[in-house]
Write a structure and sequence with these properties.
Blueprint lengths: L1 H18 L26 H6 L9 E8 L6 E7 L5 E4 L3 E3 L2 E6 L3 E6 L2 E6 L14
Antiparallel strand pairs: 1-2, 2-3, 4-5, 5-6, 6-7
Amino acid sequence: MLLAVALVASVTDWVLTLSARRTPSEPVRSLPATDTEIRPQLADTAPIARLFGASDASGNIRALGVMAEGSTGRGIALIGVEGKPARPVHAGEAIAPGVILTEVRRDGVMINRSGAVQQIRLATKPVPPGVLPAK
């Protein structure tokens, strides 16, 4: 009798577990009316790529300035590669072989290095002594 009660309790638990509504893996977000497309959140995979032996073929990339179109990810960035003179690059264009500018933001850019996404913040100059930084 005790085994029958345990079996019924176990089956009931499994039925309730498997039939329960599952919560979405990503929380539901409301978008502003001006956003027409949903952009996925990008993860920085560069550390994992380096762990598996990916080389940094493009060298040192610096973001010197940006002109971003709001929060759409489109725009133009002034990019310097390995000490060469900086040049303007549009979102979606190649910066160097295997490196594509994927997104332009107000504070920097997102690049794709052979599948590894990396964020590069704008290069900043140190504030001279006695000068208050702008707010």
